[in-house]
Amino acid sequence: MRTYDQYCAAARALDVVGDRWTLLIVRELLVQQPCRYTDLRYGLPGVATNLLADRLRELEENGVISREEAPPPIATTLFRLTPRGEELKSVLEALGRWGRPLLEETPGDADFRSHWLALPLELQLKDHAPDRPPVTIEVHTGDRPIVIEAGDGSVRVRPGTVSGPDAKLTGTPPLVLGVLTGELGLARARADGLEFEGDPKALRRVRP
């Protein structure tokens, strides 16, 4: 393992997670764990197979991830974060906040996976009516749908669908993200191509 060889906590942390792709592997596991190797490959477009294998081995050696053999009929290796690895969630959240303005400069043909929205949305959205029945919002953008679930004062975002969502959004990632975070009004977003079905109150309940 390469090292900065410094008596500094930040430098020592970067010795472990500062290499290219490493924190993005952590991102994938935070959102979707446990993950198969093929799941990680799909969520990390552009990563070389040998480099991914090297990063997984290094993370395991440093106690950030663990691997387990799933029983039949899956019969494959599954990767998940250790408690030590879970502590990196706040690091990814801080990087996401810092990098949010940079999205405006991202090329339109950049790779995108819808589950990448899970961490920033869970960080920004709030359940403003914790005493009311739970609501669900289904979001269709990118490769596959995700679901926003708000109830009991918390918001959870996960890949998948739900039967009879309270609201449904379909559109490009910038439109969807802008509407959900309150940076873009619903009427303006619909004029720009966003499709919205359901109860606008569900949207207002979770927007910051």
Note the topology:
Layout (H helix, E strand, L loop, with lengths): L8 H9 L4 H11 L2 E2 H7 L5 H13 L3 E5 L7 E5 L1 H4 L2 H11 L18 H7 L10 E6 L5 E6 L2 E6 L7 E4 L2 H9 L4 H6 L3 E4 L1 H7 L2
Parallel strand pairs: 4-7
Antiparallel strand pairs: 1-3, 2-3, 4-5, 5-6, 7-8
The beta-strand count equals 8
CATH architecture of the largest domain: Orthogonal Bundle
Which spans have pLDDT < 50 for at least 5 consecutive residues?
none
Number of domains: 2
Order of helices and strands: HHEHHEEHHHEEEEHHEH
CATH superfamily of the largest domain: Winged helix-like DNA-binding domain superfamily/Winged helix DNA-binding domain
- What is the beta-strand fraction? 15-25%
N-to-C span: 42 Å
Largest sheet: 5 strands, mixed
Broad structural category = alpha+beta
Q: What is the residue-mean pLDDT, rounded to a whole number?
A: 93
Helix content: 40-55%
Shape: globular
CATH topology annotation of the largest domain: Arc Repressor Mutant, subunit A
Distinct helical segment count: 10
Specify Rg, calculated over alpha carbons.
19 Å
Widest sheet, order of strands: 6-5-4-7-8
